Amino acid sequence: MSATLHQWLAESLPGDVADLVGRLKGVPEIGHMAIMPDVHMAGEFCVGTVLASAETLFPGAVGGDIGCGMCALAFDAEADVLEDRQAAAQVLAMLYEVAPNKRHHRALAPVFPVELADLPLSPGLEFLKKTGGDGHLQLGTIGGGNHFVELQADVATGKLWLMLHTGSRNTGQVVYHHHLPAARRIAGGVLAMAADSAAGQAYLRDVAWAREYARANRAALAQAVGRALEQTLGVMPLADTFVDADHNHLQREMHFGQAWFVHRKGAQAAAVDQAGMIPGSMATASVHTLGRGCPEALRSSSHGAGRALSRNQARETISVAALKQQLKGVWYDHRNAHALREEAPGAYRDIHAVVRAQEELTRVVRTLRPVLSYKSP
Fold first, then answer.
1. Cα angle vertex 203, ends 200, 204, to 5°?
2. What is the pLDDT, as a whole number, of residue 106?
3. Is the dihedral of CA 84, 87, 92, 93 positive or negative?
4. In this structure, what CATH number is given to the domain that contains residue 300?
5. Which of 152, 170, 202, 333 has a 20 to 30 A CA-CA distance from 345?
6. Backbone phi, then psi, for 42, in 5-degree steps?
7. What pLDDT sits at residue 377?
8. 258-283 burial, b if ≥16 CB within 10 A, otherwise e?
């Protein structure tokens, strides 16, 4: 029996994506699938895929950056505090210190959260909690690729907002690869494990830990950036505006009168009035959303604009001059222009088309434009 399949598309599916979706639809263990408008290839499961299974877990349908997501925070100032080049340069320099891409110096690393230290992990993974280890030193770091810290302006009010995107760093990758040997290939060629097996239960527990780590990572980063902006610009964060939403996870949910294991890879939960964020690119709009709880979408929405070009394609086709042209009006570190070509706005889909394609999944409550974009190559 084939899975039910619903799609919200901004454009026709590329052939390789359509082939993969068709193959997954035929996997007997998958009951429901929802395809988001930012869908694109990424291994044996596409980014922008939501699937529900009754008894089976699919590690590839979550991926290695478990708990990856975004958070947003407003400040008691307008975004024009960054109109001055000197102020923008000062903020960028401070971001390199408080939001490193790889790890903190041991003396500067945040205190490891007690709630994470107390949560159980499988034997062989407890080193992730070790003081001075990677799990500790990477807490409050951003990572590379499409992870970012961005300062934005509310288009309607001019208010200054922070949006950042990062996940569980190397801890999620360690959890993912630790459990892969217990998975077996099933019909359709995908790796899976039984949810009620010892291996499945251990995987669920460790995924929950990595997801909490990712959430703590974003909170630590937001706090550090907030302190930096207070020091450099004299602005204060508004704690009651903080919103966090992740988009690589696995959790038990009720749908269609039954409990399912819902896997989201590059898709966020969008239950009725659930807050979310959909970023565009370094030079295009982002939106804050509230979910509509669409049943056929497994109460989900997209997590971004989605790539139109692979990283290799972007490097091959987008020049430094083109990148600089696309980023006019946005503060960024020009020294990184060559490396940032793979993150150029031209490498991403039209965010407005993506948002229109999922109007029955979310409603937009705020539109923001980028003012300063920080990515650490």
1. 90
2. 86
3. positive
4. 3.90.1860.10
5. 170
6. -170, 75
7. 63
8. eebbbbbbbbbbbeeebbbbbbbbbb
* pLDDT score of 352: 95
Task: Answer yes or no: pTM beyond 0.85.
Answer: yes
For residue 200 the two structure tokens come to 């499945």
Nearest to 150 by CA among 91, 102, 65: 91
CA distance 104 to 195: 36
Domain enclosing residue 241, as ranges: 4-374
Whether the Cβ atoms of residue 10 and residue 40 lie closer than 8 Å to each other: no
Structural domains of the chain, count? 1
**pLDDT for the residue numbered 187:** 86
Q: pLDDT digits over 290-301, tens only?
A: 999 999 999 999
Identify whether the C-beta of residue 277 lies closer than 8 Å to the C-beta of residue 288. Answer: yes
For the chain, which ranges sit under pLDDT 50?
none
Q: Are 352 and 306 in contact (CB under 8 A)?
A: no
How much is the pLDDT for 376?
A: 75
94 Cβ contact list (under 8 Å, min separation 6): 228, 231, 232
Whether 46 and 265 have beta carbons less than 8 Å apart is answered as yes
